[in-house]
Amino acid sequence: MKLDPISLEILGNKLTSIAEEMCLTLQRTGRTLYVKETADFCCALAGLDGKFFAYPRALGVSGFVGLDCATTIAAVGALVPGDVILTNDPYRSAGLATHLPDLQVIEPYFHEGRIIAYGWAFLHASDVGGKVPSSISPSNYEIFQEGLQIPPLKIMRGGQLNEDVALLFRANSRTPDANMGDLKAMLGALATGRERVAHTVQQHGAQALLDAQLDLVEYAALRARAVLAQVPAGTYRFTDYLDDEAGAGLPVRIALAVTVGGGNILLDFTGSDPQVAAAINIPSHGQPHAWLTLRILALVATLDKSVPINAGLLQPVSVIAPAGSLVNPLPGAAVGVRHAAAVRVNDALNGVLGQALPQQMPAASGGTIIPVVVAAPARHGFGQNVQVVEPMVGGTGGRRGVDGADGRDSSISNLSNNPVETVEAETGVEIVRYGLRRDSAGAGQWRGGNGQEIRFRILLDDSVVLARGMERLRFRPWGAHGGGPGAPAALILHRAGEPSRALGKIDLLPVAAGDEIEIQTPGGGGWGDPWQRDPAAVLTDIVRGLLSPQAAQRDYGVVVQAATTTAPLQLDLAATTACRAQGDRAKAISRFGPERDAWDRVFPAAVLDRLSTALFAMPSAARARRRRQVFAAALAGLPDGFPQQAASEPAMAQAATNFAEATENLTKAS
């Protein structure tokens, strides 16, 4: 390191505050709800290597610390003062953008004729074209369906807006004015960064800034390795599933082996399924990308709360992600709902690290992030008003000594909820209910966090609803160390004159005035034996409306006396003691839930590993088809709704045999 510790600390705090001020500028001048309220944006300062050396601690999207601007910067050639690069291309930017609505801008900051740093900002735009309003459809099977692809190019040249690019950008959006408003907010954030960096150089000198870029990253890497050195050395394995290929098809497997030692960590995704013809692929380019490594960042920042937040946190991390897999698709694959797979990767990392650090790591989070979008006719003139109603999430998993957080997500984002008043003012909906979902948390000595539920009424005919990224409808959020799973997700349509209908996952749902949509998100998994939970804590959950008396007795062995006109709800300690002493509770709690248990019975990990090896030995174009054929041999003798619909033990045993034989035949053929 070139700077002394005091100078490094001073500069580190100053540079972090610059990134945070850039974020505040962007949020306060942004046009759409997703920027102003949800806070799906971020800003940072990048070094000459294109990696972030200053990143906000508590503003905007927390997980993009490890993104790399270098490929995007190199793509446009020479830069002059006033130039600004724009892109949203996940492949040409080498993963800086991870789906098309995420607009990325980069500005070089000059001093005495040379670049000394780069400002970066991104935000989620309301619409960049494609086949559906908001541009994100889980059923897209190639990126060309997802909207306008913007390779790295200059939106600003020498301080002047590139009008040709702006015209093309506006012409390919259903919400051109909103998009341009948000783009100008990003340009304003970059200008704030430019001014503050210039002031810092004036105070400390250009060389100090350049030295700080390297020293801050080196220092963060040093402290990250110190944290990871505390993890017991070894190789740990875990498998988790996405429900299906974004609403149809087979469950999608994420297999993960983590090797830890000497302060370094290797994430090996070998065994994960091939990329799918749906929009849930993660364009990681085989690198330690943000969507594959966020739980590692969270672990380091949790165990070392003052560690600098910058790219150095990822220096100890390496990744094996086979090309053509779900976590490293080949160019052209659809990626619009990549966050659904990223959440599941996060759960898999929780499961792996929970083996090494059982006292620190939680059970699974709710496992879903659902930006609920309503596209309604514009109130004035032609077009549509496309807005995110709420980014619905579940609860977090319980961990030793601490219950999960209710209605919050700690997996891949720290998005805020939208105020009901603002939603109703800017969209064509009325919120009927928005709150926590009772009985959704996984039971445990430390329970999971409860999920959310929202019910809203459509006010305008000819509207459509999108709820992209719905997950955990089939496989529940798992518990840990004797804890139970959270409740699965649900989406229900209430229409006058008709019975309410559970719809499952939706892509584009046409609705009319008066229709009501209800979405229930999963709770997090529980940690520890639920019958070891303090009965007083169970009573508190009942009083708060988070747990029903029936679930309290079923899941915790806690009995309460109903409230009367003269006495409040209270524990029945004698009945609770008797209930917990009964031997009929000997049946173990299912950590994963009955659906996952049944699936694993038919499709064991060892056979799935052999299937994966055989598939990746084949041409990429054949993998999905051959995978379907092998699974069909097993599923033919099972109920259509398997694993939600139970199958007999003989049927599952025969299906497992058929699956093993079909896998063996494929292995020989490959």
Q: How is the main sheet built?
A: 7 strands, antiparallel
- Mean pLDDT across all amino acids: 94
Question: Class by helix and strand content?
Answer: alpha+beta
Alpha-carbon Rg, integer: 25 Å
Helix content: 25-40%
Total of helices: 16
- Strand line-up in the sheet with most strands: 2-1-5-4-3-6-7
Strand percentage: 15-25%
Point out poorly predicted stretches: none
Tell me, what's the shape?
A: globular
Report how far the terminal alpha carbons are from each other. Answer: 52 Å
What is the number of beta strands?
22
Task: Report on this structure.
This protein is α+β, with helices and mostly antiparallel strands and 670 residues long. The protein has helices at 5-29, 33-36, 70-75, 163-171, 176-204, 206-228, 290-303, 338-356, 420-426, 535-543, 549-556, 573-581, 594-602, 605-616, 620-635, 649-669; strands at 41-46, 52-54, 84-87, 102-111, 114-124, 153-157, 160-161, 234-242, 252-261, 264-268, 317-320, 369-377, 384-393, 429-436, 452-458, 463-467, 490-494, 501-502, 509-511, 516-520, 560-561, 570-571. The chain has a seven-stranded antiparallel β-sheet with strand order 2-1-5-4-3-6-7. It has a five-stranded antiparallel β-sheet with strand order 14-15-20-17-18, with helices on one face. The chain has a four-stranded mixed β-sheet with strand order 8-9-10-11, covered by helices on one side. Helix 5 packs across helix 6 (206-228).
Descriptive keywords:
670 residues; alpha+beta; 7-stranded antiparallel sheet; 5-stranded antiparallel sheet; 16 helices
